[in-house]
Amino acid sequence: xxxxxxxxxxxxxxxxxxxERYFTKRYVLNVNGIENNDIMIMFHSNRITLITLAPSHFxxxxxxxxxxxxxxxxxxxxxxxxxxxxxxxGQVLHPKSVVCKVEFxxxxxxxxxxxxxxxxxxxxxxxxxxxxxxxxxxxxxGFIAIILSSxxxxxxxxxxxxxxxxxxxxxx
Length: 172
Known about the structure:
Blueprint: H1 18-22, E1 24-28, E2 39-43, E3 48-53, E4 66-69, E5 71-72, E6 75-76, E7 91-93, E8 98-104, E9 109-113, E10 118-123, H2 126-129, H3 132-136, E11 145-148, H4 151-160, E12 162-163, H5 164-171
Antiparallel strand pairs: 1-2, 1-12, 2-3, 3-11, 4-8, 5-6, 7-10, 8-9, 10-11
């Protein structure tokens, strides 16, 4: 009787991704009053926050090639550097701070706002090399930025945003 090693591999589709296991998803809908300009913010218990586009964002229904521009005015978000355990020196963000611009080759563009107060820890530089990650894996490899905030600010932000369950009820 012949056996294949592939028969012993479990079904991996039932396993959750890293972000599904360790992050709590929250949503801000219609940012800046623009319909379907929806942001997903994923909170970790250690105050690390990932910013990305929500599945209902109009970006996912827009065709064409695009790039992400991290130069906002005279600030280049890609040059952000933090030091030490307290992440000193990072760029300070407010809820209306632009993290990046998504620019389509055919003309239109839109800003991605941080939607929360915190310190920019890191920009996902993989998006510069491979912007398709934003469309293909927005809640994992395609996150836009990592932000760190105080515990009080993080909890206040969470309470002002929609939970995943509330979001699903609204967008369906």
